[in-house]
Amino acid sequence: MLSEFFIFGLVMTSAITGGECEVTEVFAQEGSEAFLSCKCDPSSPNPASVIWTKHDKGTVWRKTQSGLQFWGTSWLHKKTPRVQCPHYRFERRDYSLQINSVKLEDAGLFSCRVGTADGVIKHQVMLRIIQVSISPSAPIWDSTFSISCDVTPPAEGATVQWTLNNISSIEAIKTLQVAPTKSLVSGRASARLEGNWTCVVGYKGEVGRASVTLAMKGIIQPPKDDTKVYAALGSAATLPCVFSPGLIPSSSGWEKLESGFPFKAATSPLPASFSQPTPSSQPSVDKSAILTEVRSEDEGTYRCSGTVEGRQLTRNLHLVVAKVVNLANKAGSVTMSCHLSDTSEVTRYEWVHQDFDQSGNLTVVSIHKGKDLTVAKKGDDKGEWTCRFYGKQGILGNVTHHMAVMSSLGGQNSGVSHKAAAAGVLSILLIVLLLVLVQMCRNHRRRKRILQYPTLETIVHRISNEREEREKNREKK
């Protein structure tokens, strides 16, 4: 220890050649990596020693002429140094100091002294630590919150600006300039304020940044209001309503909103197949509901709500019903259309024809683009026809019909096909009944035609009687 202070004293008292550089400003976020510059003229002779010191902690790191390196005890973490000078830079006379996992107490003035045969070259670096914190750390929707930005040590005259997701303009947020080196933003938690908040500090031509992610507690699924859920007619559908982990609502429920009335008072009865989660002894964050069989009239806006810490949280979502309808049904072909109750997010449609191969596996036969599709009623076009609809982010949903069912349709949906089948059966029964009546009429007319000749029957009967009388008289004789 005495030898270390002796060397440090020699360096401090040596003649300084080349002059002293101005203090260099360096900003670093707490927990990140800081890089303190210390560069000499590449033509300068090899140094006899290099030493980094901090004004309130003594030696940080030093290198002797023999090449041995030493670290200050306060810069060791579990015997592993938090500071280092990369050796590959020594040949370029670069003795910059790298500090890993920067702490708040690391902030302050650092000095780099390079001792050569010609004297001592000195560099000074001011390390300022930027801290960004959120209070509370995870606010609940619609509750108040604040984000603060602190710089240590303070920098008089520094400017502080905020960005949200790399966008400078932040609407509906009140910015308060508390001190030259400290800024505070506050407001009410909402979905548009979630994301990456960055505090940008400018001082003496240098810029430092520190970021923090604001994630709010509330209903995380669906992630925003008016999220659309797509379901095929007759299929099952799940209406998601999931709260943040650990955020168990004291009460929850579902309601269907009247069309055109986005207020709670204007509600309509829930669908017959609507199933809400039942209360259980195990509290759950998942309050999703299920429709076991979607009907056309089930489309519309649904609202999930729950009470957390005395605050009611709600989320609206829109159920979109998809179905295949027939636009035309000719003798040799049928034209199908992919119909959705809401097409505001749909950018394109495609039809996928699937059928079973020789091994019995369902395979894709062909793909066609467009909302409407005309196919022939021949064997090659039978099988499953699936309409897929896409949005900007990818596939939104699909609806599937079988060609064998669709080819017998006479209307625009399956209800019309059942009516057509019933009418066909009734027509057949009427035809059979008519044939029976015609046959009965023919039989009746045939009998009447025979009875038109009663005299002939009488003559035959009389001749027969006379023949019997003659035979009897012969027997008596």
UniProtKB/TrEMBL annotation:
Pfam families: V-set
SMART domains named among the record's database cross-references: IG
Signal peptide (UniProt feature, chain positions): 1-21
Keyword Membrane attached: yes
Domain Ig-like: 28-128, 143-215, 222-314, 333-388
InterPro entries: Ig-like_dom (IPR007110), Ig-like_dom_sf (IPR036179), Ig-like_fold (IPR013783), Ig_sub (IPR003599), Ig_V-set (IPR013106)
Gene Ontology cellular-component terms listed: external side of plasma membrane; membrane raft
Protein name: Lymphocyte activation gene 3 protein-like
Biological source species: Takifugu rubripes (Japanese pufferfish)
